[in-house]
Amino acid sequence: MAADSTVQDARQSLRKSVAYMRSISTEGGYLWCYSLDLKTRAGETKATDTQIWIQPPGTPSVGLTFVAAYRATGDRFYREAARDVAAALSHGQLESGGWDYAIGFDAKWATRYYRRADVGKLSVKEISRRRNTSTYDDNTTQSALHFLMEYVAIAPSDKVARTALDYGLKRLIEAQYPNGAWPQRYRGDARSEKDFPVMKASIPKEYPRQYEKRSYAAHYTLNDNTQRDVITTMLKAWKQFGHVGYLAAVRRGGEFLLRAQLPEPQPVWAQQYNARMEPDWARAFEPPAACGGESVGAMRMLMDLYVEFGDEKYLEPIPRAFRWYERSKVGDNKWNRYYELGSNRPIFGDRDGQIHYRLADISEERRNGYSWLSDYGFPSTKRAYEKLMKVDREAILRSRAPKQYSDQEKARRMRSMEGRVRKVVSRLDTQGRWVTTGRLKKRNYEFDDRVETSVFMKNAGVLIDYLQLTR
Length: 471
Hints:
By secondary structure, the chain is an alpha+beta fold.
């Protein structure tokens, strides 16, 4: 009886929480954070009641929770919630195929952006005035495409969503450079090998030591795992739809990561490269450097590609990179984010556009507002590589398949989860909210008690995992 009661409470709480989220949505989309009176709203920055956010944990991330809820329960209510998310994303899809960080549903926003829905309706002059920049930074466009792939799997007849998805994937391939890289942002411009030659990365003898205030949007970008996120998106698309063009894009992306490894004595990866495949500046505090952070993501992606395809060329660069990590430690399992090209000295950046050699020499705002020192996931990556060398890759592929549980295993797992489920249920208020208490202060906004999409997704995820075991 206790288990039956918990299942019923989990079902009711999940539906109640989703109903509340739908009640505060803007045209089916979501932000990151809402005050309890809904008067203050924010994504990464402060937002209005006509805006939604794409960048995780925004609209696509919430939509994935709705898809998971439908799969766990079969309740069409959740599929309808996901449908609204797909419609919101379709509304804001740009002509260049992707999405900006946010979408607006006011007249002003609509006249500032060149959307897919505007194609054939605007003059050349009007198009030139509008923004058309797909953002791959921070998993923005990729997360939208990931959601759409999951959604069309449960709603194959939704032509609005499928059109947005197919168009987005097509343009994502067009955004890929001849060498297999993707930029941080894409404006729909053509790529030619003449302007972007296919070549290996190099360490320039001379490079600008001062930030030159040039655009970095077209650089080949690994920052925030952009490259890895795009390759993973195309890999998912290939597995789901079997389109050989998606597979070709994945393989080209892998070839870029192989080319992008810097030569000795710094055989890791840069955060971003120019068209000559040299590490280059991005923002004023992001100088050309060998990178202790994003290099981990590059190695992880190469390991994943090896598991997928079995080609050992993807593993060949990794031992050299590991040796660099061993000789470049700045503490116990600690590495700097940036290392000076050539000398390998730890360096730091600031908004003054200068290269600094001590953390204490940069402003407090940048010192505390950016990751300069971490393990960056290298120890776990090394362990994963060592395991990969010992375990058959086919066994790893099998372990990634959805797990099938016997009735006894399901019952055992449900019993083990019951305490967590009861706690999640007890924290849901009468309106269907999981309220986060305390002060949240960011650069341009602050909250007291609030509703956060990340908290909704975490708690709903517990209920969904539990209910999935009842299927």
